[in-house]
Write a structure and sequence with these properties.
The protein is of the alpha/beta class. It has helices at residues 2-18, 66-79, 82-95, 98-120, 126-139, 155-165, 175-180, 188-210, 213-227, 229-243, 248-268, 295-303, 313-327, 350-363, 382-391, 402-416, 544-547, 549-581; strands at residues 25-26, 42-49, 274-281, 285-292, 334-340, 366-373, 395-399, 420-429, 433-441, 445-453, 458-464, 478-483, 486-492, 497-507, 514-525, 537-538. The strands form four sheets. The chain has a six-stranded mixed sheet with strand order 4-3-2-5-6-7, sandwiched between helices. Strands 8-15-10-13-12 form a five-stranded antiparallel sheet, with helices on one face. A three-stranded antiparallel sheet has the order 9-14-11, with no helix packed on it. Helix 11 (248-268) runs parallel beside helix 16.
Length: 587
């Protein structure tokens, strides 16, 4: 029996070593680790048109000098006439016809192939080749158009193009030989691509004539010529500089600079971190800088922008999307702000951008804010810009003035943060202080943000809360940052009610009776953090004796019972033996 009891105890102890470790769970929510969230980086790619037409003057705005206003009224009368609009619609319809689109696509692909060859073979890009060729032509006094010499296929083609480049005058001695040191007519790879381009170009002009597009363009040109449009444009060019009228590329620079300044102020006010990328496009797109938080660098690059030649919207967009893809954060939304003043006449056709480019943008979680700038909306490819915006959940605007551009840039940026946005625009005179608008807070908000922007003068913004208290730096939860042409006020956990925005004109340029201001109000809702579910949290691993307490207790009870039985049996045996010894059987 003793041996049996001993074996049983040993068995129970052994089992405890082979039973899987039991874990004790705690369901206290206080012990549940909270999810840690990191601030998202707001990435904004600025994509700017720097084609030659961006050097024309912008005549938007309401406070134009009388002479400029008179010229603008005459130009608007021409552009808004029924005949001009009918001709423009006809040109657009033929440009978008299937045969013209296919011929344009083939020609653009041939141009792109030569551009890639130049880049891959140490010649830079096609744009750099054009720059070299034009410098040589200028040195020899040939000031006419360079005649696409960068696509020359052979020496006979070179001679034909040189006649046009030198204005059909005598070709200077030595010019031909110097150009042959630049144009790679000794490379079979280049020659093959140049011949393909020449064939595509010839095919395009066959379609250009047969489709009626050539006649439509001629009719539009002749209407402008006969109506005096070109004469009026020349008059604007002559007087606009003396009045300080900006060109479209100058407006693009100003809007870009203000966007950079807002990003800088947002960072100072401890807002979400942001990065900017700058892409430009003319004949081809060019990456000025990848995404960076070095706002001084971006600003300096914007200040240096100069216009050049053609318009290749598709290449600019694809470079911006390349940067978003390289950032590797498609789980976070990104923004592309696109500005153009015309139609894409190089690179991808509009139809391909509306299918291929938009699909790529959606896959990268990027929205496109597209802005067209010009005298009338007929000047820009509104169908393309609208389509790009709507397909990517962005926004589209046609703008005539710099104030509209700035307001659009800022609104798009603030929407990209997830905020709901409203804006106020108005004019203000020297020394005037006025209510710009009212922002109603009718729910618990995480933040109320007000951005004042202006292109001229020195303006100030003031905010009054629903109780009538003026918001000062001492006001609870406020940040107030002032930059060049931008003023940013943020209120954390704003009170519910009506907040009044006031604008004051500290100074107005002496040649202006008033200046335009823009206020963008953005409301950011509180982030809803779901109540965490109770999740089992393991306690520290128990010791051997804690872990096996149940088994040990059971074994101890069994052992005690067995021992008791053994004691009873032994006692009984001893008692019986004793009784036998004390009993004498009868003799």
């Amino acid at each position: 029996m003793k041996r049996a009891a001993f074996i049983l105890v040993i068995f129970l102890l052994s089992v405890s070593f082979f039973v899987p470790e039991a874990t004790v769970f705690s369901h206290s929510l206080a012990d549940v680790p909270q999810v840690q969230t990191t601030d998202q980086v707001l990435r904004v790619a600025i994509v700017l048109d720097i084609s030659g037409s961006m050097e024309s003057y912008s005549l938007g705005g309401t406070d134009l000098p009388a002479e400029i206003a008179d010229l603008k009224a005459k130009i608007d009368e021409i552009l808004n006439s029924t005949e001009y609009q009918d001709l423009s619609e006809q040109q657009k319809r033929l440009t978008n016809s299937e045969e013209v689109v296919n011929a344009t696509r083939t020609l653009n692909q041939a141009q792109d192939a030569i551009n890639e060859w130049y880049k891959n073979n140490g010649y830079g890009s096609t744009v750099e080749m054009v720059t070299k060729i034009e410098a040589i032509l200028s040195n020899y006094g040939c000031s006419c158009w360079s005649q696409n010499l960068e696509y020359t296929k052979d020496e006979e083609d070179l001679d034909t193009k040189l006649e046009g480049a030198c204005c059909w005058d005598t070709i200077p001695e030595g010019l031909r030989e110097e150009l042959l040191t630049v144009i790679p007519l000794d490379d079979p790879g280049y020659i093959s691509l140049a011949e393909a381009y020449s064939a595509a170009n010839d095919a395009y002009y066959v379609v250009y004539d047969s489709s009626g597009l050539s006649d439509a363009n001629t009719a539009l040109y002749e209407y402008r010529e006969n109506s005096g449009y070109y004469d009026l444009e020349d008059q604007v060019k002559a007087v606009a500089p003396s009045y300080g009228i900006p060109t479209k590329i100058e407006l693009a620079r100003q809007a870009g600079q203000i966007l950079v300044e807002l990003s800088r102020l947002d960072e100072l006010s401890e807002g979400n971190p942001s990065e900017l990328s700058l892409v430009t496009f003319s004949n081809y797109g060019n990456l000025e800088t990848a995404f960076t938080s070095d706002f001084d660098l971006v600003e300096s690059l914007i200040n240096k922008l100069e216009s050049y030649n053609m318009t290749n919207i598709g290449d600019g967009l694809n470079i911006a999307l390349d940067q978003i893809e390289m950032a590797g954060t498609t789980d976070q939304p990104s923004l592309i702000i696109l500005l153009s003043d015309g139609y894409s006449n190089m690179g991808m056709v509009s139809q391909d951008m509306l299918s291929i480019t938009t699909e790529r943008a959606k896959n990268l979680n990027a929205s496109i804010c597209a802005l067209g700038i010009g005298e009338t909306e007929y000047d820009v490819d509104a169908d393309l810009l609208t389509g790009l915006a709507s397909a990517t959940e962005g926004s589209y605007l046609f703008a005539e003035s710099g104030d509209e551009i700035v307001n659009f840039f800022i609104s798009c940026r603030q929407k990209a943060t997830g905020a709901s946005v409203t804006s106020f625009t108005g004019s203000i005179q020297q020394g005037e202080k006025k209510d710009a608008g009212v922002v109603t807070v009718d729910e618990d908000l995480e933040e109320l943000s007000l951005t004042l922007s202006f292109l001229e003068g020195d303006l100030n913004m003031q905010l009054i809360d629903p109780d009538g208290e003026v918001v000062t730096p001492e006001y609870g939860g406020v940040s107030d940052e002032v930059g060049e042409n931008v003023h940013l006020i943020k209120i954390q956990d704003p009170k519910q009610g009506d907040w009044t925005v006031q604008v004051e004109a500290i100074s107005v340029p002496s040649d202006r009776t008033s200046v335009i201001y823009n206020v963008v109000a953005s409301k950011t809702q509180k982030k809803i953090t779901p109540t965490p579910k109770a999740s089992p949290t393991p306690t520290p691993s128990p010791s051997f004796f804690e872990k096996n307490a149940l088994y040990l207790a059971g074994g101890g009870i069994c052992l005690a019972g067995l021992c008791l039985v053994v004691v009873i049996i032994v006692a009984s045996v001893l008692l019986i033996r004793k009784q036998r010894k004390g009993f004498s059987p009868p003799k």
